[in-house]
Amino acid sequence: MKAIAVAIAAALVLAGCGVPVQDDPAPIDPGSLPSRLRNPTMPTTGPTPATSGQATVQVNFVRRDRLVALNREAASTTSTELMNAVLQGLQDGPTATEQAAGLTSALQPGLTLSVIHVQAKSVVLELSGETGGRSATENVLAVGQIVLSVTALPAVDEVTFSHNGVPVEALLADGALTTKPLTAKDYEALRAQ
Question: Bias category Low complexity: which stretches (predicted)?
């Protein structure tokens, strides 16, 4: 008799642990959903998969004041070609599909980036064209886009900038100005989660 009572009590406890049954669907607040479920066509925050057999590089673009890494194809795996693919990808900006998914670039239209010096794992980039007139937030995101993209290359750890051959101060993620070499660590806080 005692065993039957324990079995009945256990059955009642287990029945109480189930998911309640509803006759009608309950609405879900869209704001409580993760962004990838609100807009399933939006690219993920990580790099896109590489196509088979093709060399790829990582470029960063902006979504809601955060940097998102995506892959771009490179002509070859030489250091020069990989660097050129990164710089060209940044200058080209997001594709129409990526723009439709909310990605933008903080780089000024018409800004040109070129490598003027490489030593060990440090690169000096020359900025040509329009470089001013943006908000501090846009400037930080632009510098972050470039630094995170270029330092994603295995051969590069540091980036410095010059304009007309003169070193340029850059904004760090915390808003401080520096002419010191910039690393990925300086802009990690800007990455999308």
Answer: 40-51
